Automatic annotation (TrEMBL):
Record's protein name: Fatty acid desaturase
The organism's place on the tree of life at top rank: Bacteria
Lineage: Bacteria, Bacillati, Cyanobacteriota, Cyanophyceae, Synechococcales
Similarity comment: Belongs to the fatty acid desaturase type 2 family.
Transmembrane segments: 30-50, 124-147, 159-177
Keywords assigned by UniProt, alphabetized: Membrane, Oxidoreductase, Transmembrane, Transmembrane helix
KW tRNA-binding (keyword) present: no
Cofactor: Fe(2+)
Stretches for region Disordered: 235-254
Basic and acidic residues bias locations: 245-254
The Fatty acid desaturase domain, residue ranges: 27-128, 130-236
Length: 254
């Protein structure tokens, strides 16, 4: 199931990118423009979710080489991210959530969302990756200009902007809201919390990663099965729930 859904996300991301880049610029209405940007943002986020599941070895369970290869491809297409480094950082996040060893957590209680977001992105993006992204965008934009000068505007509109919006989406629903705390945990303690959105909204928000306590409790469960865990993970304070590299599937109803 994970591989089939992954193939669908990969295919839809590529198809919508090509179609959007080649569409007639004058043919877009504001409503169509907004809808396609939203769809491209959701699919862009989906690439990272596939890379994330690959980090937990749940994208293609039992076939580590294929799993890691697809994870590398997903993160490369997402933003030129290096799979090995992202995996090291993410597994540290699972082992030490909310501590100084957690690369995704804020440094101080008073840190605001923007400072936290900037540090979060700095942990995953490097100058070399930014150069690679810029070179890719300029190369494609240059090719489109040969067809129609205005066509080059499709690159920032349908490729760059969805990536930026996706990074906010992942940070907001996958890191900031689940890990910021709500004042109910004891002073100095960190508590992972779930967002409790309805099923469709949970899917659209960030591929069910609003079920964040469930994910930390069972990191070996892929994104599309997280809703099955609702109500099976007790609310608790503290730093973590289980091993970050546990890829054993959870039986339905467990």
């Amino acid at each position: 199931m994970g591989l089939l859904l992954g193939a669908g996300i990969f295919g839809a991301w590529l198809a919508t990118l090509v179609l959007a880049l080649l569409a007639e610029p004058a043919g877009w209405t504001p409503a169509a423009l907004g809808l396609v940007i939203a769809l491209r943002t959701l699919l862009q986020t989906g690439l990272f979710i596939l890379g994330h599941d690959a980090m937990h070895r749940t994208l293609v369970p039992g076939r580590q080489r294929l799993n890691d290869g697809l994870g590398r491809l997903a993160l490369l297409l997402y933003a030129g991210l290096p799979y090995a480094r992202c995996r090291r950082h993410h597994l540290r996040h699972h082992r030490f959530p909310g501590s100084r060893l957690d690369p995704d957590f804020r440094r101080a209680i008073g840190d605001g969302a923007l400072r936290w977001y900037a540090r979060f992105m700095g942990n995953y993006l490097s100058l070399g990756q930014l150069v690679l992204l810029l070179a890719s965008w300029l190369a494609v934009a240059g090719g489109l200009m040969l067809l129609e000068p205005r066509q080059a505007l499709a690159v920032p509109t349908f490729w760059v902007l969805p990536l930026v919006l996706s990074s906010f989406q992942l940070f907001l629903f996958g890191t900031y809201l689940p890990h910021r705390g709500d004042g109910s945990s004891p002073a100095g303690r960190h508590a992972v919390r779930s967002l409790g959105y309805p099923h469709l909204l949970s899917l659209l928000a960030c591929y069910h990663f609003g079920y964040h306590r469930e994910h930390h409790a069972h990191p070996g469960v892929p994104w599309f099965r997280l809703p099955q865990l609702r109500g099976h993970v007790p609310h608790q304070h503290g730093h973590g729930y289980g091993p970050a590299d546990d890829s054993r599937p959870l039986r339905p109803g467990r």
